Amino acid sequence: MQPGTALQWFFDALGVPAVNVPSALEAQSALLRTLLDGKRMLLLLDNAHDADQVRPLLPGSPGCMVLVTSRSQLTGLVVEGARPVPLDVLDAGEAAELVASRLGAERAEAESAAVAAIVEHSAGLPLALSVTCARAVAGPTLRLADLAAELADARGRLDALQTGEKSTDLRAVFSWSADKLSEQAARMFRLLGLHYGPDISAAAAASLAGITLAAARTALAELTRASLLTEDAAGRFGCHDLLRAYAAELASATLPAAERDLAGRRALDFYARSAHAAASRLFPAHGQVLLPAPSLQGVTPEEFSGPAAYDAGGQLVRRGGPRPAQRHRASGRVVRGRALLEARLVLGTAPQPARPDARGARGAGHRRARGGQAG
């Protein structure tokens, strides 16, 4: 919607005759500010496209408040003094309450396991939960377990959430944000649909896309502003499963198979070489997996140097890792094993380990139990 159309709605609501409305947008905006001056009003601007769409609709009177909802972060308005109120997806408890409120407590309790599965597969997204509940209400004999089974199939999850209406179809709703992206950010979003794992670092994303770290950060920042990604305190980027499925669909539909395959190989090469670098830094006395040189074009592995190198290396192997007392001992095994495994995936062969030192020359049975000499 253009700002002029929204302004006309305001003028109609305020009883302004059409003949008194100027034609220029700037003059229309000034007229709105004049009409609202001294009044106490709440204006709701729902689903704003960007800050430029909102600015002509803002009153100048301090007695008025404007509530703007948007899929974008509208950073420009925040710079100008707007107060952002980020809304996350629903947690498990909130999502279950929503389902129970739509279906009735009795039906939800009777199939509590199915409700839990629906909540999980809907990624806490209110629209996905509402669409599933609407299907259940429309078919009172339909078992919630059957709906949960449809959602459990990641490949068909978005199909199960189709409504036939653009305002409530998840693909259409996601496209409102995806279609506004720059070419580089759109390509990054699609490639992220090919990445296995709940989140990704900027360095890994750069190698996945075969671009510089600076370019990757720019693309990731744009995706974050569009609410297609979230960034956690550790600087890792992720999205919920439904967005990931949408990104994967776009990748399959728009990127050649050769490009998708090469992106996957770059990601594996990045992880193998980064794990190798971490193992070399953490445990320099142990035998190391030999990796081919050079790396694939566009791959820039993580480097581990300086005072924080040990902690940075440990980041590569945890996520629910061992307890602190076990970390120094266990992390080395995991890092070296991961480097070996991922190198095999990248090369399609088993790399030869470097010559072990005296401490590593133990019995063959022990080496096999530890995963080879590099373990």
Characterise this structure:
The protein is mainly α and 375 residues long. The protein folds into four domains: 77 residues, no CATH class; 74 residues, no CATH class; 74 residues, Winged helix-like DNA-binding domain superfamily/Winged helix DNA-binding domain (Arc Repressor Mutant, subunit A); 96 residues, no CATH class. Helices cover 54% and strands 5% of the residues. It contains 19 helices and five strands. It has a three-stranded antiparallel β-sheet. A two-stranded parallel ribbon has the order 1-2. Helix 13 packs across helix 14. The longest helix is centred in the last third of the chain and has 26 residues.
Short description:
The protein is mainly α and 375 residues long. 54% of the residues lie in helices and 5% in strands. The protein folds into 4 domains: 77 residues, no CATH class; 74 residues, no CATH class; 74 residues, Winged helix-like DNA-binding domain superfamily/Winged helix DNA-binding domain (Arc Repressor Mutant, subunit A, Orthogonal Bundle), CATH 1.10.10; 96 residues, no CATH class.
